[in-house]
Write the structure tokens for this entry.
Amino acid sequence: MTRTRHVVVVGGGNAALCAALAAREQGAQVTLLERAPHEARGGNSRFTAGAMRTVYGGAEDLRRIMPELTDAEVARTDFGSYSREKFYDDLGRVTQYRSDPDLAERLIEGSFETLLWMHGHGVRFLPLYGRQSFEVDGKVRFWGGLTVEAWGGGPGLVDSLTSIAERAGVALRYGARATRLERHGRGWRVGVADDWIDVDAVVLACGGFESNPAWRTRYLGPGWDLAKVRGTRFNTGDGIRMAVDAGAATRGNWSGCHAVGWDMNAPEFGDLAVGDNFQKHSYPFGVLVNSDGRRFVDEGADFRNYTYAKYGREVLGQPGQCAWQLFDAKVTHLLRDEYRIRQVTKVTADTIEALAAKMEGVNAANLVAEIAAYNAAVDTATPFDPTVLDGRGTEGIAVPKTNWANRLDTPPFEAYGITCGITFTFGGLAVDAGARVCGEDGEPTPDLYAAGELVGGLFYFNYPGGTGLTSGAVFGRTAGTAAAQPAA
């Protein structure tokens, strides 16, 4: 008789829950150890919008994971398509072609299949209308290769996967911090407080080290201890440390991370009541200035999906670790809903001079001169179109703007204060395409797997929006399926 394998999954977010569900689907006994208490469960996944980047050929593919799409919706919406080739190109371009090719292949080739699998278990998806589309000439048009979100966003995704896992028979333990990992015979021992759990296989899916200021400073560099944390306070590197102590190798961009523009008065860690709405991601339609009153990045270098995750680092490097986003009345209707929440650092005025005077800590004279120079440099002959890289840029200024350049000349004017919010770290464990954790010799460690943000080697320097949850689901499913099978 074949003995039922016992798999422990360490973590409680999207990657961990997908791993637990996949292992249970294969007949394993599964215990999930979530460090957070029940009310703070779900890791970083719970703080996201639930967006998931996937390959798809058009509306008919989307209907396979979103059967609620009506004929009327399809008729009025240009969903476009997102090919494997485009996904490879985008991932390669933003990571400067350093992404591990085997991991990239597993992610991209498994993206749509994994969303189908999730849908088959009861996870609901819908089009990401609010953040990834604009209505142009009566047609809703998606842009930037990102079309799908989980129903209810990140909280909805976590709640759905949790319910599905519970119904499948996964044992979920909250407030259960795993701190030790030891080889034990042909299996593993996992230490939780004063207890040990003997298991056949372990899946580590408990996030990176973004909530550990000492590690941030050590690996990301000086100043990163000052960054705010967008999500959970519980991702302090436990999984990485345990695996390394057990002989695992590390890999990836240890000096890199996903970091964004985040409200300057947001709390030090994420607030589940606000979710991801402290982020401010409509900067391509305005200008970014520092406290010296100077622009410092090309706000329109690309769709925000391909710049937002690296611009947090740029903000952290400014005086006072802060910046301001400026908009005029021509574009405020394009601003995302996160600009209209109650907890926002915002000033308004009818002139740039009056606006500058209200922006605390900003050199007002420099700002007025900077906006005047920017306005004079805008190419107004090229039409503005928020759904494409429109080429409406600037000429003759030190920091160019490549797309979506509009003069700031129509009151009222608005300015939003931001700082750096770190999402997750890019360095992690050496993992192969089968989600197996590898040792220093490059060989897979028997019955030890990893998924989610502690996988190293996938993201370098930057990140295509919506890829994190997809990666967590793909490698979580891969890890859980493999962990339930006896090692060859």
Remarks:
- The first strand starts at residue 6 and ends at 10.
- The radius of gyration is 23 Å.
- Residues 101-121 form the longest helix (21 residues).
- The chain has a mean pLDDT of 97.
